[in-house]
Write a structure and sequence with these properties.
homodimer, alpha/beta, four-stranded mixed beta sheet, three-stranded parallel beta sheet, binds adenosine-5'-triphosphate, binds magnesium ion
């Protein structure tokens, strides 16, 4: 889940898609690569103090299996938390060997057989944390907020994706774009949505995630919107999006 | 204008406060430190292709006076644009001499006598671009979105501010907090606002910026909301906020 534009719904989409997929019986791991630890918070996984976290995996070669936690009351859903230590990782990684491939190696060493999905939530930048995610994955999912600035940084993101594919990860594809915070009352939202669909065609999910207060309230209860308010427009949209992604995965 | 949480209104606040201050006869410069160049876009200042930009000032020692442009139809308002080249600056700055103080030196060499305000729009990270802004300035303004994740990263930001004050810029103070995207219909917004006020007291502006579609539409016309829709709740709130900031500045 990457997009260097801030506040577009990377964390919200990671958390709610993961929850929706796990409610369909899938086994899902969310890796929190954002030093702010928003995904860890939303999934009620401890990430303050001496908690073993993704920083120790990337910089300290600790096995991923030692930091993965079960998400309370959500069977089949796991989270690898991020603590504040991760804030120093971008600078510390610059001088390490194989700095771009540390997450890939950690996932390869992890007994991931029992998992159906791994979702990686990235910070709003194109630094070494996001590069580690792009090297570790086969599919990139880009959440795009239906607001004017949304299209401005896309070119930069796609150029970086091409660079990673050319030099570090030939399997990397942009598989999915999700339109988020769509506010049907504004012309701006439909203009942005139309523009994205005309550029990216079928890569864009049919399901559009509406702006919904219940979505933004859920993290304050340490829950995904899927369990906080399953009947809300936001929860139903994320359930549809999860189903669409699962069908696409099955078709590959 | 700094906050590593993405999408909280850093750019929107920089642009609209700058416009409001210039409409009161103040001479204002906006420095765009975000490689996405959203502030440059909102102010209709060219920032694609070979435009001289902030990257050349930070990494190439080009004088700031050579890149500053007038904002069309807004007398007294100027912008130092950011192009995509700035995306490489964080890594390139790591190995340069006086890497944290490059912006401060550029502003010191700039004939800023005629300016009343310089507003620096930062990217959503705590890397060397934001550090350059914190070293170059006396006053830090933090926009805080009235949403749950807003409080999560504040501790990290304030710790970094303390580090900069201790080692690089003893004059740095957190002077102003602006509450943004306040949606009166939700309990969450008032809960976050109350929490911020109880933590930070008078540092928080009395003026709260409401969520207003007209604010998010303005950049698609290359305007601030101040000229796009002066009667909107968003424009009036930014006008009040500018007045409050000007009174505070006069009182110092
Ligand atoms: N569909 C939605 N409806 C309403 N609010 C939403 C929706 N999706 C996300 N939000 C809210 O918008 C804000 C930004 O979302 P989020 O934090 O997920 O974005 P992000 O891209 O992860 O941000 P960052 O760039 O800081 O990592 C959050 O406060 C979130 O609760
Ligand atoms: N008061 C408001 N009402 C409605 N929409 C707003 C308001 N303020 C900002 N927005 C919209 O919210 C989005 C995020 O705002 P903005 O881009 O200014 O945040 P930012 O902190 O600069 O983001 P980044 O972290 O990417 O730099 C934009 O699409 C903007 O138009
Ligand atoms: Mg996030
Ligand atoms: Mg911005």
């Amino acid at each position: 889940m990457a997009n260097q534009k801030g506040g577009v719904g990377k964390t919200t989409t990671s958390v709610n898609l993961a929850a929706a997929l796990s409610m369909h019986g899938q086994r899902v791991l969310v890796i929190d690569l954002d030093p702010q630890g928003n995904a860890s918070t939303a999934l009620s996984v401890e990430h303050r103090g001496d908690v073993p976290d993704v920083y120790q995996v990337l910089v300290g070669d600790r096995p991923l299996s030692e930091i993965v936690k079960e998400v309370p009351e959500m069977p089949g859903l796991y989270c690898a938390p991020a603590t504040i230590d991760l804030a120093g990782a971008e600078i510390e990684l610059v001088s390490l060997v194989a700095r771009e491939a540390r997450l890939r190696r950690a996932i390869a060493a992890f007994d991931a057989i029992e998992l159906d999905y791994i979702l990686i939530d990235c910070p709003p930048s194109l630094g070494l944390l996001t590069v580690n995610a792009l090297v570790a994955t086969r599919e990139l999912l880009i959440p795009i907020q239906c607001e004017y600035y949304a299209l401005e940084g896309l070119g930069q993101l796609l150029r970086n994706v091409d660079l990673v594919r050319a030099h570090l990860n030939p399997d990397l594809i942009l598989s999915t774009i999700v339109l988020t915070m769509y506010d049907g009352r504004t012309r701006l939202a439909s203009q942005v949505a139309d523009e994205v669909r005309s550029h990216f065609g079928d890569t864009v999910l049919n399901t559009v995630i509406p702006r919904s207060v219940r979505v933004s309230e859920a993290p304050s209860y340490g829950q995904s919107v899927m369990t906080y308010d399953p009947g809300s427009s936001g929860a139903m949209a994320y359930m549809d999006a999860a189903r669409e992604i699962a069908y696409r995965a099955a078709a590959i």
